[in-house]
């Protein structure tokens, strides 16, 4: 609840000029909808309304919009479950109003109350002076006698919030008995304010719906946390580029192979957002399927290139594919246009693996890439990652890989803490690219 006692904003009179009313609405347009946060938008509305239009204000929104970001199923609904998202007062007894109309209250208004009538008819309901009987009806409906105390003799106005012909909730404006009562001109101004408010609320709803859809998509595409693999400890991170979609084309995977071996995969479909994520899901599924055939890394990437070229001839992707055999310690790695993995031996400094990368996936070159083989001794750590981790606007990939090597070569840490340290550096840089990071450490040290 906002208390505006002491804020020096003059009441807009009922006989205000057209210019004054337009100035008020222009001010409202600038102050409402500054973010795509639904609750903040509602707070901004009552901030505009009090005290310019009213002594007190409250804004109720259908609960389905808040919890599910879904549009109401009916154009009007007097029995809808609504939540009071914001209140504001410019009165001498704000505590009474706070008790009478608590912010956050979830309720259904009885059909005989003005609030329900506004939602049922999609029309403004107002009383130049609210008589004692209506005030007491409100009080009895919620079991709070203080409601009758603050509403008796007040001027009371309820206007529905409509977007796309659907009532999303309503805005309540109240003037105390000592204030000038609402006139028809005030109701018209309140309706225009409610119209602009409803548009902002709908925009916030669409934002949250799209964001939730994107998060659901991402969670379905990225693998679940891998089970501990024989002879191998694994940790991973994914950082999205966008605040809205939170999805992109980067992925990682840890795949069980025959004879207790493990495949480690990191890839990057060019682009960001839902489109890149959808392509990534197909490429990742294809890589997972090919891994089940237990091909060597070169053959796996060769076949994956053919799949990507057929599925998405206009898309390209990079990928690093590695297999690890705990019985021999042999690590075999191949790359299709991907940044080089970094290997940190248990007894030496981290170094990028000397891989000769082939063309990116989707180019369709028809060539098999070379496989780099080395031995991961107990305690050695392998870092697979995407270029968003090491490349920034201010430095090239080689410099970024050097920074990564410095972090890997620092004091020995468990892989989860090491992942956090590496990705935190990227967050601080404020770069806008997806990042996938996969760390694997050979057991035994």
From TrEMBL:
SUPFAM superfamilies: GAF domain-like, PP2C-like. It comes from the Bacteria. It is an enzyme of class 3 (hydrolase). Residues 229-442 form the PPM-type phosphatase domain. GO terms for molecular function: ATP binding; kinase activity; metal ion binding; protein serine/threonine phosphatase activity. It holds the Pfam family SpoIIE. It catalyses: O-phospho-L-seryl-[protein] + H2O = L-seryl-[protein] + phosphate. Keywords: ATP-binding, Hydrolase, Kinase, Magnesium, Manganese, Metal-binding, Nucleotide-binding, Phosphoprotein, Protein phosphatase, Transferase. InterPro entries: Bact_Sigma-Reg (IPR052016), GAF (IPR003018), GAF-like_dom_sf (IPR029016), PPM-type-like_dom_sf (IPR036457), PPM-type_phosphatase-like_dom (IPR001932). Residues 20-211 form the GAF domain. Its EC number is 3.1.3.16. PANTHER family: STAGE II SPORULATION PROTEIN E (PTHR43156:SF2), STAGE II SPORULATION PROTEIN E-RELATED (PTHR43156). Primarily acts as an independent SigF regulator that is sensitive to the osmosensory signal, mediating the cross talk of PknD with the SigF regulon. Possesses both phosphatase and kinase activities. The kinase domain functions as a classic anti-sigma factor-like kinase to phosphorylate the anti-anti-sigma factor domain at the canonical regulatory site, and the phosphatase domain antagonizes this activity. This is protein-serine/threonine phosphatase. It comes from Sphaerisporangium rubeum.
